[in-house]
Amino acid sequence: MPSSPPPLPSPSLALPRVSREVRLAALPAGLPQAAHFEVVETSVPVPGPDEVLVRNRYFHVFPALRTLIGGGVEGAPFPPLRVGDPLFGAAVGEVVAVGAAAGAPGGGPHVGDMVHHYLGWRAYAAVPAAACRPLGDALPDPVAHLAQGWTAWHALTRVGDVRTGDTVFVTGGAGSLGSMAGQIARLLGAGRVVGGTGSPGKAERMTAELGYDAVVVRGAGPLSEQLAQAAPGGLDVVFDTVGGEELRAALGAARTGARFALVGALSGQLAPELDGTSAPVELDTFALIVKNITLRGTTTPDEPQGQSDWNERFIRSLRSGEITFPHTRVAGMEAAPRALEEVFRGRHFGTVVVEL
After folding, report:
1. Is the CATH number of domain 149-297 3.40.50.720?
2. What pLDDT was estimated at residue 107?
3. Percent helix / strand / coil, the chain, rounded to 5
4. Which residues span the membrane (predicted)?
5. pTM for this entry
6. Would you say 144 and 138 are in contact if contact means Cβ atoms under 8 Å apart?
7. b/e map of 156-184 (b: 16 or more CB within 10 Å)?
8. Which of 177, 206, 233, 267 is the most exposed place for a label (fewest CB within 10 A)?
9. pLDDT, tens digit, for every residue of 206-216?
10. Hey, what's the torsion of the CAs at 66, 71, 77, 83, to 10 degrees?
11. How far apart are CA 115 and CA 129, in angstroms?
């Protein structure tokens, strides 16, 4: 018998012809501003073989875009952004059409499925089916799938090895990563959790809403003295998203055998005088040696089973109230460039999400 022709893309509803996306319009000198981006109209893409068309509902506004705009870092998981390129990042959306083979039984997401992927900053995205993670309906609000808990959980369990009674210091403790890490450290049995931030207002919210025992504030006095008061017994684990002076102060306050998980470099990414691709800091090597300290960098791992286990834990913890997902919602694509500028300037608390 002759073989059947490949199926055409299967839509769930009549699709518009026009989509919108945010593009890099010009390279900045210093921190990018909203004017360096533009919202443009483009054709709704047609999903190719083994692709699905996703109508995005939410996408994450994250500061690491500064590094990609600055030219990127060799070995990083994402390519640099050039003028005219659409931005990208984590997104949650609904599959509205599938290409040939993508919707076959066992072949990938189906029309109507909610999925997580990395082609945010646009209304519609044609995404390889293999690059989509189906979400199901276990969470009452799908926006929570943009929480950075998996990265924090991995760093605190596999690198920081948090143990019962440990004192944990989270730099950038009010950011998208830090706001989850502080809560997760407590879940793992930490006896004391200290955060770092650059804002007195955020410091108040961190203790009131996220359960930090104490917070040190950049610019409110020497960090070494603040840490000595906040953690008089020293630090066992450091979850570092910042680098710079916070990392240096944490090294001075570390106990023998302390474990440092380096997951970010905001001190360089958000420095106006730098291009976002480096984060220099001077450390005392003697302290590393005599205290037997471990410093290890880590990125978000591609471990489907580990992430699945975390997702189950996250769902239970959200429902029980052990963890919250602090976030700010910004309405509409037109507001996305301004939201990104505000993230670069540290004006928000928790994760910033654009809702379409």
Report:
1. yes
2. 60
3. 30, 25, 45
4. none
5. 0.91
6. no
7. beebbebeeebbbbbbbbbbbbbbbbbbb
8. 233
9. 999 999 999 99
10. 80
11. 10
